[in-house]
Amino acid sequence: MPKQSFSQMLTDIDTIIKQQVIPLEPLFLSQQWEQLYQQMDQIRLQVKAQGLWAPNLPDSVGGMSLSIRQLGQISEVTGQSPLGHYCFGCQAPDAGNAELLHMYANEYIKTNFLLPLAQGEIRSCFAMTEPHTAGSNPTLLDTSAELIDGQWVINGRKWFTTAADGANFTIVMAVTDPDAPKHLRASMIIVPLDNPGYQNLRNIPVMGHSGSGYYSHSEIEFKNCKVPANHLIGEQGQGFKMAQQRLGPGRIHHCMRWIGIANRCFDLMCQHVLQRQITPTSTLADQPVIQTKIAESYAAINASRCLVMETAKIIDEQGFDAAKHHISMIKFEAANMLQLVVNHALQSMGALGMTDDSIIAFFYREERAARIYDGPDEVHKLSLAKSLLKKYL
Amino acid sequence: MPKQSFSQMLTDIDTIIKQQVIPLEPLFLSQQWEQLYQQMDQIRLQVKAQGLWAPNLPDSVGGMSLSIRQLGQISEVTGQSPLGHYCFGCQAPDAGNAELLHMYANEYIKTNFLLPLAQGEIRSCFAMTEPHTAGSNPTLLDTSAELIDGQWVINGRKWFTTAADGANFTIVMAVTDPDAPKHLRASMIIVPLDNPGYQNLRNIPVMGHSGSGYYSHSEIEFKNCKVPANHLIGEQGQGFKMAQQRLGPGRIHHCMRWIGIANRCFDLMCQHVLQRQITPTSTLADQPVIQTKIAESYAAINASRCLVMETAKIIDEQGFDAAKHHISMIKFEAANMLQLVVNHALQSMGALGMTDDSIIAFFYREERAARIYDGPDEVHKLSLAKSLLKKYL
Amino acid sequence: MPKQSFSQMLTDIDTIIKQQVIPLEPLFLSQQWEQLYQQMDQIRLQVKAQGLWAPNLPDSVGGMSLSIRQLGQISEVTGQSPLGHYCFGCQAPDAGNAELLHMYANEYIKTNFLLPLAQGEIRSCFAMTEPHTAGSNPTLLDTSAELIDGQWVINGRKWFTTAADGANFTIVMAVTDPDAPKHLRASMIIVPLDNPGYQNLRNIPVMGHSGSGYYSHSEIEFKNCKVPANHLIGEQGQGFKMAQQRLGPGRIHHCMRWIGIANRCFDLMCQHVLQRQITPTSTLADQPVIQTKIAESYAAINASRCLVMETAKIIDEQGFDAAKHHISMIKFEAANMLQLVVNHALQSMGALGMTDDSIIAFFYREERAARIYDGPDEVHKLSLAKSLLKKYL
Amino acid sequence: MPKQSFSQMLTDIDTIIKQQVIPLEPLFLSQQWEQLYQQMDQIRLQVKAQGLWAPNLPDSVGGMSLSIRQLGQISEVTGQSPLGHYCFGCQAPDAGNAELLHMYANEYIKTNFLLPLAQGEIRSCFAMTEPHTAGSNPTLLDTSAELIDGQWVINGRKWFTTAADGANFTIVMAVTDPDAPKHLRASMIIVPLDNPGYQNLRNIPVMGHSGSGYYSHSEIEFKNCKVPANHLIGEQGQGFKMAQQRLGPGRIHHCMRWIGIANRCFDLMCQHVLQRQITPTSTLADQPVIQTKIAESYAAINASRCLVMETAKIIDEQGFDAAKHHISMIKFEAANMLQLVVNHALQSMGALGMTDDSIIAFFYREERAARIYDGPDEVHKLSLAKSLLKKYL
């Protein structure tokens, strides 16, 4: 895509986010789900009409051949609202799932799952994390899939399966080769969620809410859940490798989304302090202790953006392997930037920052997870350091 | 009270908190208000029967003549659960209101408001903070009360009026002497909440929830709200002075409550990491990065407790004025300790820490307010420093 | 310069730094000045012979027309040793002075001062900071220069005049127009240091040492110090504007130098922990608490480098004004990164980190100044925030 | 000692520190050792005359039977100057050595070493840390002592042997029982330093200086160094146990000394900002960003002092074992408080803070070691956490 038109595209997306998506947030914050989804569906139609739908999609299913850097920039813009990615059809985990199916799935899966997913007709989820085993250690994975009589028989429990509520299918990570070397034990299998062997046990209450539909995280169970053999994605035993593969663009997606959130909080903080009178002749914006928070937030956001965009550049130009250290590094760097900025913004808003009259309180509680999911800070730091130290041996 | 029996009292309270109060938290977290209040009422009866009710109360209304230090120690124990103070009848703002009425109110008010309050028959609230003026600057207070024909006519809007929902009366802070020196402009007046000039506009949604009953924060309005002249508390124009007075024991109460919360989070963190398997032969507790969080939390909690207890000692032995710097200092010191410990605990729990399966997520989001209410960190730091610097002039 | 050869140039510089410059550091740390300067002079000759001398210089005096980005990259490499910039003839304040004279000085000054300076035959200094006035507030500048009988008569005291000891001339900032608007009061004037009206009062002991020659910071005095009228640089009253101008490339120079220091500390930390045995079968490098420091340092360094290089890019492509916010932001961002990394490195070295057996202790104490000179963190944050807030009005 | 007279004693010590000791610091900072020691000797005479000498000493050698808490309070006062403890004869490592000899040494040692030490006639040192083994792991101790023909033959190398330069004897920790359980392998032996088998290899340059006399840290060597069998302190194999024993009061001593340093920095910061003009009508003290540093420093100092004094109280009332967690905790808590306060003070002083015109720069560089010696932060945190976690099993 020519530079000119991409820049226009970013502007168009930003306009929709600011003028149409953000005004829906009060419905979201007050859990008026039905009305919310109805109105978001309207926006989705318009987004499709404007040719802005699912910018992340692979070419073959109607995508735009954007670079990782460009996808990152879009994610920053849509990330300003928790409703943004959904409205533009590039929300996790569907985005990652689509890319995965595009790369590895057989024709049957592509036709029956990828196509309707790409068109936004159905939603999907990704069942990897388990309640009783540490995600950071694949050898502990409990969920199993056995090939019996031409069918995968799946047993196990998963949680934090984002958006399972209302999804049409899930990709499940299960141990298929228990005796293989530990990184070759698991495979990915597609399970339609109307399967009688599948059950959504509950939408987990997260930070006070169980959510609904796309905005939820479920605990789910597979009990002798049977799917045909051709529901295997890619090759048997390649589950971890594909999960790793899925991680790269997803990392950029998330980190840039966090930067979008930080931008939004920064804007709200600046707007608030300018209008908050504290003496007859001055506002909070005149207070050096507030100015300090603004400057620190701005520097943190910009440093993170530069680092994440450099990571995207390395991926675009040299591939994922060359970006390995960067992909690990931006996870904790950007997540901590986010926590800093959200905290500064909330504190600057005073009591208002605690209320749902502003979106900041939502970001504060919900995005705390940024330092945990896809590997907590601590795990990324240790693995990054070990890898870096090898260069000094 | 003899030292021995006070120590026994602490143990008794701790037992009730651990065995009866904490088990009710799931009702609280899932907003099953009716069932929750019913069960808490049962505990209140038992607490009264055991002679543990309202330890903070003034002597004349059935109190125990405890020192500020002892009240602080009780607050640390009841603070372990968000339900603790309520079950023991020493919850804010009722506790502070009772003390205030005890010290300053006329007999009419004592008989009609203080007595039933002390016995836990009714609840009260305290209407000070306003949505459109900075609480830190009293000259900006908007709400007014005019004495017309022997009645106070009150007009204005307040918010973050904790526990207004279901309260029987409020103490309202209003400007009665607009032309007086700025710290002598306001007075405190009692308003029964069935007054037609009073309206509870909404329970403010805070961190995702509007709450209910005692567990709520309201935005309220006074429109030509009339109460008899004898509803004035203390002397006219003494509002700020009494508010200041109310602050000292309240500060110890809150800081020790935060330490109780930190203790709870610390316990949950230690218990979790010991049982969370990460390899077949080790748990999270074996991880040095987790151990570091545990040690830092422990040191922070203990340093805060020592500092708050020293503050209480100074108040007990030398009075509030002598403790002025300490009262200001512990506000931000303990609030930041709390944020540190809650964050460490949440991070150590991993994904579980984000869920309402543990109470930590509640503390994380709700107690963020500790750094804001009763004066944000920033305001306390500046005023403390200005006062300290005077000694060097 | 073609990309290929610039990359080769960086490699060549790095080789000299690592193989010849760093081995001289023990002389530096033990204050064996004579021997040190003698050996550095040898390296300078070789640097000139290899065509690597003074890469920062303006074209007209033998420079290489490098971009700000390229100069930044060189500064990162030479910054690895406190001796690096001097050996390559691009040390502050000479580098900034040369650029300033190149842009603003008359032919007389260029011939007599700029040329020998550019060739490394003489050294210079820059006298701006005063002991008794706040550098952040130009209206407080005390030093004055009056034009009397065709001569500037200068009076005043300066300190932290880096490298005054042994310098041939200084550029002095003095008030020439006391009644002009405050940013138009000062001018820059060249003073040869053999002037009888000039005195070097002392090399200020900084962090335990008074230093010597280039490596020193002096307190100096002008007492009826007379220089010819044509020693004025640029136009009268343009002192602050030129100082501002001087700042942009200087900022990149310093920030990239700090990144070079951070790289050096990072290398030393990694090397040390890998060889420091703590049990018969493991080293410090196996300790997760050390790994955490390594990962955090790496992320901080990379984020800073990205941000500083983006700043350089904006300067190169859009000029200084467009980079105003960035130039302010990188000052405190990079200085704090440096403090973090040096602290992590020192702590990882244990007792060795406190000794002069490693260069880290030097960086720890000496580069603490990074957060102070050219405007302390606090000043940059406030001015950045004020500027950012204007966009929200 | 009666409370009244102890309080008077503290005042007397403070007066001497402020009026006589602090004025000698310029000699110290400019390494005018001879003049410095001469003048300190004068103060020591006066201190003895006033009956304030060596307050820490055991009763039997002229001590005052002070509690650990009281010793802590004295250490806070003398700690205000790096010269304080020496002038009052209670400097480490002599203080700890005296206590150790008092508790464990035989009569021969007491007469020949303890008595002159207690009277300040000679100085001693304590040789434990080794350059090539991790102090945190006793099994790695290299230095050995073999009993041959009634003599201990000692071989090994030590470093960071504080005050070895000019000391009369050292206590050396050496492996005497290599095959014993690892905590029973080492013993303590007294070595007079005129022994031909002993050599002071160098005063280690620490943060730019090798120091002199008491103010130095040496690298020393024992080569077939022979001393009589009765130079053994206590029982063979009890080295680690005695070292542990020595640690408790030493920890209070050091932590309170750090608080004294922090007090000093706090005073200097407040005094400086009040007189540093930044506009014609205001000083640095009017800047909220400075006030914030002052308030944070004050809170940190007070929290630390409370925690350390509580530790001393537990030791006094319940003994060392009961204070085990506290003794570990205050090490890193107080050391980090110190780093925070010194950093805040230095930053508030601006460029002046980097110079030796103020003592802050010395504290900044020299006391960085607080987070390293006697076990780095990291080691204390891990061991504290492991011990705390046992309570949750």
TrEMBL record, chains A, B, C, D:
InterPro entries, alphabetized: Acyl-CoA_dehydrogenase, Acyl-CoA_Oxase/DH_mid-dom, Acyl-CoA_Oxase/DH_mid-dom_sf, AcylCo_DH-like_C, AcylCo_DH/oxidase_C, AcylCoA_DH/ox_N_sf, AcylCoA_DH/oxidase_NM_dom_sf
Give the required cofactors.
Answer: FAD
Name of a matching Pfam family: Acyl-CoA_dh_M
Identify the residues that the record assigns to the Acyl-CoA oxidase/dehydrogenase middle domain, covering every copy: 125-225
Domain Acyl-CoA dehydrogenase/oxidase C-terminal residue range list = 237-389
Could you cite one Gene Ontology molecular function of this protein?
A: flavin adenine dinucleotide binding
Task: Provide a GO CC annotation, any one.
Answer: cytoplasm
Coiled coil segments of this chain? none
Keyword vocabulary terms for this entry: FAD, Flavoprotein, Oxidoreductase
> Which biological process terms from the Gene Ontology are attached to this UniProt entry?
fatty acid beta-oxidation using acyl-CoA dehydrogenase
Q: Which PANTHER family match?
A: ACYL-COA DEHYDROGENASE FAMILY MEMBER 11, MEDIUM-CHAIN SPECIFIC ACYL-COA DEHYDROGENASE, MITOCHONDRIAL-RELATED
Q: What protein family is recorded?
A: Belongs to the acyl-CoA dehydrogenase family.
Please give the name of this protein: Alkylation response protein AidB-like acyl-CoA dehydrogenase
